[in-house]
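pasting for the record
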Amino acid sequence: MSERFDLAAGEEHRYDLQRTLQTGSTITFYSDKYDSTQRNSIDEIKLWDESDFVMLSIMVRRDERRLAFNTQDKDQRWGHEHSISIEGIFNLHDTTFQVIVQRLSFVVKIDDEIVSVQPKRSSGAVRRVSYLNHHKSESLFANSLQVTVTTPPAYSCNCSVALTDRARLVQDIPNRLPSSAPYLL
């Protein structure tokens, strides 16, 4: 299942819907209007649930001071033995993305180029994600941000979406996941 949302800078767009995310579901956010002073109108996308099992946060903001590529791994158990959290920051010219992931595989694309992929096995409950910078130009201004959410096989979850020019994605899932679910690969 794929969804496309068009976001224009300075305009408010709101979509409310209920649906089911199957394995490999893709949600794409397009920012087709921006100017040289505000390079990107997509500010924030969040994916989480109240039980703290799942969180995906992507923030897009202007940051001219940092051009370096950087990642971090962070384990936040949040009171549950299987709860995992990964925080990574990678910079493409004046655009910074911060990613926090729990129990989901994901692929992030900017203007159809993959910039993060490949969850890897690691010790304990921490899932590490490697970020690959395929962009060569120092003058990258992203026009679209695509997030592919991959749930465990045969697993689905209800999704409620509300978007403005500060794009947000909110997902509710069951309070508990079976301990045998293959989400720690």
